[in-house]
Amino acid sequence: MTTLATGIDLVDIRFWDRPPEERLADFARLRELGAPVYFAEPRVPLVRSGKGFHALVRHADVVAASRNAKVFSSEPAATSPEPPPWLSKVFGTPMVNMDDPAHARLRRIVFRAFTPRMLARIEDDVRATAARIVDDVRAGGPGDFVERVAARLPINVICSMMGIPERTRPYVLSRIDAMTEYSGVRGSLASPRTMRLLAGNLKAIVDLHRLVARLGEARRRDPSDDLVSALVNANPDGERLSVKELGSFFDLLLVAGNETTRNALAHGLRLFTDHPDQRELLLARYDEGIGAAIEEIVRYVSPIIQFRRTVTTDHELNGHPLRAGDKVVLFYPAANRDPEVFADPDAFDITRSPNPHVGFGGPGPHLCLGANLARMELRIMFEELFGRLPGLRASGEPEYLLSSFDNGITRLPFTWDAP
Ligand code: HEM
């Protein structure tokens, strides 16, 4: 089936500008059709081929495609718009755009950054950063939650993992903003603005690569106890990251670990404001309830909207024929509201159990590497916020990011009792 038959066009920028509930209602219509719908994409010179994709919107389809990485390849790219082939030649390929065995090798090396031991080591640091953010909020009074809270935590955590000093972090943040401006639907327009964003994006990547290359070379010469030293010096199997791979890994951490956690925090506050019963439930037994509450925030919000795969061989996906070379896009917000898996899927229920959401990706080799780090950041940040700012709540409507990749909030006014 094609987009014309449904009247829904996931490639059109106007679709992503509509209120989230309307988009979810359209996803529900697509799900009810029972077969993936094909969407044509425009050809953009220098950027991508414009092959179009089949939209996977049912939970069972997203799970099956994520699991079967031999048929549903992450090469040449899992992101949209697909980067042009020359980009990875210049900057290296991030692991999210790789298949095994190259992907497995990289994942083995960088896994060291996310072991329970490594996470336990940075927990105190995360708590200290969260406490400092709340100190500043109390001193400064109400304002914009995204700027004052949500944007500050994840970037500081990633930089502190990588050993990037505080004074360099505002520069890193400005580079990330330039990179992420060119993601999602805005890149699908062959306009001078898109080209300008692409140029800004490339310059930002070069700047960040230079920064971490210097760091990597220093740690190779003079290893210390930090993550970069562990990545650029050999593991017990003799594997290590090249300086170019370190650059790609850093980009990926910044893009994958920054906006996602920031948006989960902002959406979380919005949800606890709109659902005071759920907030009271959580605060009555925070330690017991926060784990399931975080899973429900990630399910309900789906901070990442989509990743794509390329079909390597003719294949039937849950009865739907696909051809070698076809593209599929996995739409996590649609899968996460699938009534075949989630009872009352539009209810925000922090006691939901089981909760097999695919907000961190479906089961398979690319399942989010930073999920436990994100869970820790959310648990600690909400604990500091709710513990020290009684009556914390959003005090106005959120402003949403226009993107088909990040379910982002760009601004959210907030306040608390007797600020
Ligand atoms: C709420 C927060 C987060 C969400 C919703 C999220 C979501 C996702 C999703 C959907 C994927 C799957 C990609 C695919 O299947 O192609 C993914 C992969 C990944 N995520 Fe996350 N993520 C979050 C936080 C983080 C954090 C904090 C980090 C690291 C600092 C991180 C690092 C990664 C990496 C490295 C991958 C690629 C894994 C691979 O290709 O093997 N993520 N994430």
UniProtKB/TrEMBL annotation:
Keywords tagged on the record: Heme, Iron, Metal-binding, Monooxygenase, Oxidoreductase
Keyword Iron attributed: yes
CDD domains: CYP142-like (cd11033)
InterPro entries the record matches: Cyt_P450 (IPR001128), Cyt_P450_B (IPR002397), Cyt_P450_sf (IPR036396)
GO biological process assignments: cholesterol catabolic process
Presence of the UniProt keyword Aminoacyl-tRNA synthetase in the record: no
Coiled-coil features, chain-numbered ranges: none
Gene Ontology molecular function terms on file: cholest-4-en-3-one 26-monooxygenase activity; heme binding; iron ion binding; steroid hydroxylase activity
Family named by the database record: Belongs to the cytochrome P450 family.
Protein name: Cytochrome P450
Taxonomic lineage of the native organism: Bacteria, Bacillati, Actinomycetota, Actinomycetes, Streptosporangiales
